[in-house]
Amino acid sequence: MTRLRFEFKTIYAMKTCLECGDKIVGREDKKFCSDGCRNAHNNKINKDSTNFMRNVNNKLRRNYRILSECNAGGKTKTTRTKLMAKGFDFDFFTNIRQTKTGNTYRFIYDQGYLFLDDDSFILVKKDR
Ligand SMILES: [Zn+2]
User: Fold this and answer.
1) Fewest C-beta atoms under 10 Å: which of 46, 60, 62, 112?
2) Helical residues (DSSP H) of the chain, grouped into ranges
3) CA of residue 21 to ligand 1 center, whole Å
4) Which pLDDT value is given to residue 13?
């Protein structure tokens, strides 16, 4: 009985606020010492995900602008070198389409591309 009580006290004393590190008094499932700390913590998390989403959206927007500029006619050939010189980032696209013949097109919205070899590829625009 004495031992159990000791263990409970140890766990209880170790609980600290996730935001400021102060000891938490009260319910065992509490994560923050105050409403202020809980709000500050949640705001930080939301801000991080907003920043991340903004960065991804900026990259997608830039990629889309580059493809639109290079593919004014709706279908054309270009090179990786040219796109990368304009700042194209191949890690960012919105969807992948596989054709029956086994070709894999990557799209940024309605602008797509298909690798022909290491450097050259075809740009296409999806029909609406
Ligand atoms: Zn706190």
Assistant:
1) 46
2) 2-14, 35-70, 80-85
3) 6
4) 53
> Two tokens at 38?
């809980």
- pLDDT, averaged in runs of 10, over the chain (128 residues): 51 77 84 94 90 94 96 92 95 95 95 92 88
What are the sequence ranges of the domains in the chain?
A: 15-125
Full-model pTM: 0.68
pLDDT given at position 127? 77
Cα–Cα distances in angstroms (integers) from residue 3 to residues 9, 11, 15, 18, in the given order: 10, 13, 19, 28
Helix (H, G, I), strand (E, B) or coil at 120: strand
Phi-psi region of 87 (alpha: psi -120 to 50; beta: other; left: phi over 0): left
Amino acid 4: pLDDT: 52
- CA torsion sign for 11, 12, 18, 19 is negative
pLDDT of residue 74: 87
Distance 46 CA to ligand 1 centre (A): 18
CA of 45 to the centre of ligand 1 (A): 16
Tell me how far the alpha carbon of residue 48 lies from the centroid of ligand 1, in angstroms: 20
